[in-house]
Amino acid sequence: MHRITGKSGGDSLIEMSPTESFNDDVNGYHQHASSSTGSLQQGQSAIDKQQQSKDSVFFRDGVRRIDFVLSYVDDKDGERKQERRKVYEANLEKVGLELETEHKSESDDGKTYFVKIHAPWEVLATYADVLKIKVPFKANDIPDNSDMPMNWLSTPFRLPAEIMHPEPDYFTAPFNKSKSDFFLIDNKDTFFPPSTRNRIVYYILSRCSYFRDECGDKDKKGIKRLLNNGTYTAAFPLHDCRYWKRSRDANCESERYNLYKNWARFFYFFKEQPLNLIRKYYGEKIGIYFAWLGFYTEMLFFAAIVGTICFVHGFLTYDDNEWSKEICSEEIGGNIVMCPLCDKKCGYWKLNSTCNSSWQSHLFDNVGTVFFAIFMGIWVTLFLEFWKRRQARLEYEWDLVDFEEEQQQLQLRPEYETKCTNRKLNRITQEMEPYLPITSKCARMCLSGATVLFWISLIIACIIGVIAYRLAVYAAFASIMKDSPTTNLQVVGPYITPQLATSVTASCINFVIIMVLNLMYERVAVWITDMEIPKTHLEYENKLTVKMFLFQFVNYYSSCFYVAFFKGKFVGHPGNYTYMFGNWSKLRNEECDPGGCLIELTTQLVIVMTGKQVWGNIQEALVPWLMNWWGSRKARNHPESLYSRWEQDHDLQGFGQLGLFYEYLEMVIQFGFITLFVASFPLAPLLALINNIIEVRVDAWKLTTQFRRPVAAKAHSIGAWEEILSGIAVLSVVTNAFIVAFTSDMIPRLVYMYAYRPQGEMNMKGYINNSLSVFNISEIPLANSPEEGENPSWFNSSITTCRYRDYRNPPGHEKPYSHTMQFWHILAAKLAFIIIMEHVVFSVKFFVAWMIPDVPSDVRARVKRERYLVQEYLHDYEVEKLKVQLSHNGNNDCTCTPMIYPSLPQHEVLSECL
């Protein structure tokens, strides 16, 4: 075995000598994907394929497992692509991989070739050593004391033990090819599971060149570039069977069937997830996502209970709502004339017209709102801290401890290796490695930052445009709907208002803008990240994650931030209204809905959150199913023997490198909705819980049935999403404090009750009259006055004043229309509430975070013991090996060990000696 370099000073793949590569060939069978091989196979291909099962995941000899499949078709540019494929596949064979080609005449469509790839033991062992893949060397001898009291209560939610624990627990150590007999290798064919095998093969495919040594083109390398330029149409590992039926081959694990049966079906929504089996089949990266999603859903259960209790409290105190009674009263609300809500096209109106929205607002705007906002600030801390503990336990159980260091040092991105032509000496490894000069790195970072700011500014500009639309059309709707027939409808008539029409149309426009921008800046974010040339896959994903979340954050939350913190706050007062772009624009700033801004925020949150989730689930499930149904329509009537396993998987959808990224993004955006604005809608966690119960099974179903098997990848955590969740958690305390203080009417009511209560009684009588200021109609400028015919029939010249929502002095006061002292008292109370709530919640958060260690004590002990055992057993192994070697050198005729242990493999002999 020796190394070759495809380019001067460049990267190397490990080349196997023919004797090393094919030591384990069965019955002397040799098969390579060359043109001559293809011609030899054509004569017997039909017979072979008729004999093959639909579920076959082996070469035609029935022994060598198919670890990866490449597909391609002949097209107009066939000669250049054929040359690339020929060189690429020859280089794969040099590395030691074994190839077998299925001719296009054997495929369902008659034009697709399939190249099946098998990695023999020598290749797997070599690259397992390179990638430091952890493998078992000793059974775990630490007793499991994880049984919980009252454990029988969870029996209905459990899955069978053979599904939950597909393999025994071992102590593991990074594989070392030179010490292969140190590890528990019973069968070389099954020692590395299929997920590890396809991960190793993909590592080779990503770094193998498709140019001849004499060409010297450094950029022609890797399966990703061959897929992008159309040389190959697909590259994927195989599922091990059909999802609805076990494989006929006894050597197949049928893990896909087990996953579908026990995980992907919706009627198992109340069952635990088989995380170990998910990890074994799909790899740690997908496994950790479903572990996080399941844990998040479990924690939502507690938030949903408390939120529902707060909502029920609002419902039960419905009759105690004194201010709504005053609004709906004919004697009070029916005699209060309110000032117009817009210029020219809006007339005067009576306060009792807002009766319905006032009652609705009380369901969410009550004392329980404050309690729930504080509770969610503490809940989010508990969620993050307990997830860290859960994640630490998974890191140990899945052999991911110290994985990040290996990821950084050993798995450079092929794009980084090819684009960084400069080399420097790594002080740690003392090897030459590619690097990006600091000047180039700074220039790329600056361009990236400027592009991100530009696109965020573009999103904000679009949101401002929607706001301007709302301001411009409100007056038009008010005029059009004044005599509309819909106002006479008995049930829905009172709800069809200019405000509703404006909000609905603006929301539709905003939705279209969000969808269009999503398509555009998704590509922009990928382009920017590619331009930065991240060093590792982990760094690439983290950079892309931050950019996409910034875009999505602004896109989805900006409308909620506008309603919560800007709408109705800067409107001025009659005679001196504030306009969006100045008086010349005639776009008067929008006032809150008559029921208050909190009910509008609640409505906005419900529409955006539920609409996004429902549409997302339908899209995730329906689109792949329809595409697969259409793509496989010709093959559905074929007999089993004519529709092979690789053709079935080829007709499925590709999961893609960013498939899991979008799943995380969807859930983190939802997490923002239920934390940032939860004070306005206590039922948000309940809706999220229902959605996530469905989401887990939808994601499992589509991954198991509608997508090709993803390439297994390792990940020791949820990556940059953890920092994003922590940032949202901190921001949520601030936003909820401001929502309670400035968007809700909670603080003004409390100030009135305790400081301005009538006749010394602690009640809310007279609050509505106290919260409305008076303006003289004769002082309203002509530009603000309603046009002729816009006023209602009951309005006449005897009405000389109108009311508006503010705390200002009445006309005739020495400082007319200036803020009253009550306004400043309320403002001081709001600021004091924000400071107190933030300090209380943050204090509890930091105390809880300090009290709960990130790593459980038993996990910490197990990690230390495993490290100790690795050192001890390796030392004893080396000593024993040296003794055996010296014994053989001293007496070549000694056959003691084979006589004592005639039937035991070498690793068991050494284990007995140790």
TrEMBL record:
<dbReference type="InterPro" id="IPR007632">
    <property type="entry name" value="Anoctamin"/>
</dbReference>
<dbReference type="GO" id="GO:0046983">
    <property type="term" value="F:protein dimerization activity"/>
</dbReference>
<keyword id="KW-0472">Membrane</keyword>
<keyword id="KW-0812">Transmembrane</keyword>
<feature type="region of interest" description="Disordered">
    <location>
        <begin position="1"/>
        <end position="53"/>
    </location>
</feature>
<keyword id="KW-1003">Cell membrane</keyword>
<feature type="transmembrane region" description="Helical">
    <location>
        <begin position="500"/>
        <end position="521"/>
    </location>
</feature>
<dbReference type="Pfam" id="PF04547">
    <property type="entry name" value="Anoctamin"/>
</dbReference>
<feature type="transmembrane region" description="Helical">
    <location>
        <begin position="831"/>
        <end position="852"/>
    </location>
</feature>
<feature type="compositionally biased region" description="Low complexity">
    <location>
        <begin position="34"/>
        <end position="45"/>
    </location>
</feature>
<comment type="similarity">
    <text>Belongs to the anoctamin family.</text>
</comment>
<keyword id="KW-1133">Transmembrane helix</keyword>
<protein>
    <recommendedName>
        <fullName>Anoctamin</fullName>
    </recommendedName>
</protein>
<feature type="transmembrane region" description="Helical">
    <location>
        <begin position="671"/>
        <end position="694"/>
    </location>
</feature>
<feature type="domain" description="Anoctamin transmembrane">
    <location>
        <begin position="278"/>
        <end position="866"/>
    </location>
</feature>
<dbReference type="GO" id="GO:0005886">
    <property type="term" value="C:plasma membrane"/>
</dbReference>
<feature type="transmembrane region" description="Helical">
    <location>
        <begin position="289"/>
        <end position="316"/>
    </location>
</feature>
<dbReference type="GO" id="GO:0005254">
    <property type="term" value="F:chloride channel activity"/>
</dbReference>
<feature type="transmembrane region" description="Helical">
    <location>
        <begin position="452"/>
        <end position="480"/>
    </location>
</feature>
<keyword id="KW-0325">Glycoprotein</keyword>
<dbReference type="InterPro" id="IPR032394">
    <property type="entry name" value="Anoct_dimer"/>
</dbReference>
<feature type="transmembrane region" description="Helical">
    <location>
        <begin position="367"/>
        <end position="387"/>
    </location>
</feature>
<dbReference type="Pfam" id="PF16178">
    <property type="entry name" value="Anoct_dimer"/>
</dbReference>
<feature type="transmembrane region" description="Helical">
    <location>
        <begin position="724"/>
        <end position="743"/>
    </location>
</feature>
<dbReference type="InterPro" id="IPR049452">
    <property type="entry name" value="Anoctamin_TM"/>
</dbReference>
<feature type="domain" description="Anoctamin dimerisation">
    <location>
        <begin position="58"/>
        <end position="275"/>
    </location>
</feature>
